[in-house]
Amino acid sequence: MFLNRNIITAVDIGTSKICVMAGVPDKHGNISIIGHGEAPSEGSVVKGEIISFGTAMEALAKAFDEASNAADEEVHRHRMYVGVSASGIVSSQHTGTIVNQDDDRKIKQEHVQDALRNAQGYATASDELAINSCDSYFVVDSVRRVKNPVDQIGSRLDAYIHVISGNRNRIQNFKSLLHEVGVEGEPIPVFTGLASAFGILTDEEKDNGVMLIEMGAGVTEYMAVFDSGILHSGVIPVGFEHVANDLAVGLDLNISVCRKILLDRKYQSLAKEGKAFLELGGTPVRKVPVISIEKIVDLRFREIFNIIKGEFEVKGFFRNTGASLVFSGGAALFPPAVDILKEVFNVPVRVGVPLDLRGSVSEIDSPRYSTAWGLLKYGYLDWQVAEASERKGILERFISGLDGMSKPLFKNITSLKSSIKI
Amino acid sequence: MTDAAVKKKPRVTVIGLGNAGLKTVSRLTQSRFASWLNIIAVDTDKESLDTCFAENKIQADPEWRNGLGCGGDIINGQRSFSRERPRFAQLISASDLLIVTGGLGGGVCTGGAPIIASVAKQHKIPTAFIMTTPFSFEGQSRRKIADEGIKELLPSVDILLCLPNDLLFATLASDVPVESAFKKADQELATAVLGVAEILRCGNMISADFADFKELLSEKKSVCCIGSGIADSADGLNRTHIALERMLESPLLGSVERLKTADAVIMSLTGGSDMQIGEVKKLLETLEGFIGKHPRVISGVNTDPAYENTVQITVITISYDKTVESSSESDEKPRSLLFKKAHANKAAKVKTSASSAPSQQQFEQGMLPLQIVSKGIFHNTSPAKYRDIDLDIPTFQRESIVIDKGT
What is the CATH number of domain B8-202? Predict the structure, then answer.
């Protein structure tokens, strides 16, 4: 009886916390949260990689229990989406071409699907596993770049897709952790940057062009979206923990003291008042110059943002006008990071929070939950597509071709004919 | 019909830091063209403050430094100035523009300049730093301190002009008495500061304003030269030509060749109400002839009642720093063995290991400084690699920036 409810579970295994969210579709057709649980990772995940299985399992089990209690359901029995990140994630663009030989030269939905299917025919290295593939854009007649080529007149259609792939073994790590905790079925891996994009970007931003930077405790993901297509994405294995570590090394302090300094930001109010030293209790009492803290923090953030900016520039993303920047993740709650980001990029910056939150939510509208919420939203869309394809007749499936179609990132469900999986 | 919209006179503050800075602002106070500037002299050394002519004098950090200088130590300079932050905030908060001048290499200026830069940034005041770099005969260590100062200042100021001191005496004959040589140097610097202040004034006819300046100079390390020339009606009808000649002869400009080989040139012409359009035209055209096609040019023209009967022309040439600094090569070699300097994102500063022999033959095997490269909590994890850079190592360590740990 319970298992008939269409529950979707999202699991975000991060460096600072492990978070589980469960949701069901409501009567308006949106996903709404029924349960949420989380537990601190306590050092079991470092830079996005699981290094201590035992501790991670305990935290995950705790999170699952909390979510199950809140939802009155056993959330680990259902369709599950897990966010994967960390180094080893690479993104690449591939294209597929079809020639339109119809008399009226009108591009139809089948042509689009054929082109997308051709785009999927690329070789992958044996240790790589493609996690997500999404539309980038379409080019008609090698000249015109369009978002939706259906009903355009053209003889040739190139479909560009953006594929995110990761190391097979590392992804298996995430899945096996879930299996150890007692999850049945196959959890579906999703790149956390993509999930955040789903969770916090507005439609207007996706159309006009937006850069997304999600900075958590362990890693920083970035993604460039334009005209509802993804142009570039990637991961830098540096996060907020690195800032705390820099402080610990630079000032000879304990790492937990440094984390506290960053969290309560007392040094900022001292700087405003004009005091030069931050006093830390203990034996012996330490007086740390505020300017040193500011310097270390500034250097580290500036370096990370400059690296990401370099990545965007290499791919030519800055040429698209109207691009703004959305900053999310735990580090977005740290105001100096936002200021430095504004200086480095010189574009309008917004702190991204989960959009369209529904359900039993409290305190979830913080940037820390953008990945988990995004996973839920993505999972819902994915599940709808899977359901739609299952209901199709065999003949239609045979005609339209079922396997290997790229998932349009933000398109209407009715135009979808098959699912994304690779 | 009178001009209803009267442009507000901008409030420009000029701060002189340290020994060299004090001398410059001292000179500046004595010039009649500088009456609209708010000039402040800041130092920890009480004696040098006493001999300075500025109207406002600030002795920084009297309790700890006891009226003495900082002894060429950046950390001392930083500490002293950090303590005075609220005072600086009070001084400069009402300004529209802040110009800071001093000689990098000393303790007060190199340590204090970044502090002032950060106070100005907090109050969102645009800043222009006109710093001189030490003479070559002052030695390697001062040069190194100056370079560190430049590195510190680059990200926090809007405009940074580095003037090499060596240029000051390049055009003087060797039999000129020492005192008058240094006096001339101070005068040149003061004129240079004045020239920059003129360029940055609002209300210009053809405006070369702060945003142009900032776009050229922010975040890029560059070597700049300033040439400044003044002529008045007493010099005859050809005064613009004479001003131009004087400008080209100014020692800080280096040589006329600089104009052609620079990456960018900013020029500004200021005169009184009697300046004629024909003069302006001729002057700007002649300058264009000198500059040529290669550099990017920004020009500005301004009139001011104080400049009655006089014409002043200032030219700043900017060459971005892309080359190896041969004077510091022999010094950098042992350090480069220990850390790879990753300058992927700053302006291109290519460091090649010295293949040319250093100017002084030193056959002593010095001790390599032991620098502990520490990763802290990440020492047992697989390194976070980005294009051959290990990002786990703290950024300040990779950039070799000194951090004051306090007590």
Answer: 3.40.50.1440
How is residue A144 written in tokens?
């015109």
| Per-residue pLDDT reduced to its tens digit, A79-107 | 889 998 876 888 888 888 889 888 888 88
* Interatomic CA distance for residues A84 and A86, integer angstroms: 7
CA B215 distance to own-chain centroid: 16
Hey, where are the domains in chain B? 8-202
**Digit-coded pLDDT (tens) for B293-315:** 777 777 777 777 777 778 888 88
- pLDDT tens by residue, B90-147: 888 888 888 899 888 888 888 888 888 888 888 888 888 888 888 888 888 888 888 8
Q: pLDDT at position B338, please?
A: 30
**What domains can be seen in chain A, in order of their start residue?**
91-165+402-408 (3.30.1490.110), 202-353 (3.30.420.40)
Residue A252 touches chain B, beta carbons under 8 Å: yes
**DSSP-assigned letters across all residues of A362-383:** SS--SGGGHHHHHHHHHHHHHH
Q: Is the ipTM of this complex over 0.90?
A: no
A286 touches chain B (CB under 8 A): yes
B255 and chain A in contact, CB less than 8 A: no
The neighbouring-strand residues paired with B42 are B17, B58
Residue A346 is which amino acid?
Answer: N
Distances (CA, A) of B83 to A143, A297, B65, B182: 63, 21, 11, 32
Q: Which 3 state secondary structure label does DSSP give A91?
A: strand
Burial of residue B339 (number of CB atoms within 10 Å: 0-12, 13-18, 19+) = middle
Q: E-assigned strands of B272-404?
A: 296-303, 310-320, 385-386, 389-390
- What value, to the nearest 5°, has the Cα angle with vertex B39 and ends B38 and B43? 145
CA distances from B35 to A45, B305, B310 (A): 64, 12, 16
Beta-strand ranges (E) seen in B321-386 are 385-386
Q: Band of the pLDDT at A222, cuts 50, 70, 90? A: very high
CB A386 within 8 A of CB A399: no
Residues of B in contact with A236 (CB under 8 A): 384, 386, 391
C-alpha separations of A247 from A77, A250, A282, B400 in Å? 43, 5, 17, 15
Distance CA(A217)–CA(A200), nearest Å, equals 19
CB-nearest to B394 from A246, A277, A309 is A246
Exposure letters A197-229 (e unless 16+ CB within 10 A, then b): bbbbbeeebbebbbbbbbbbbbbbbbbbbbbbb
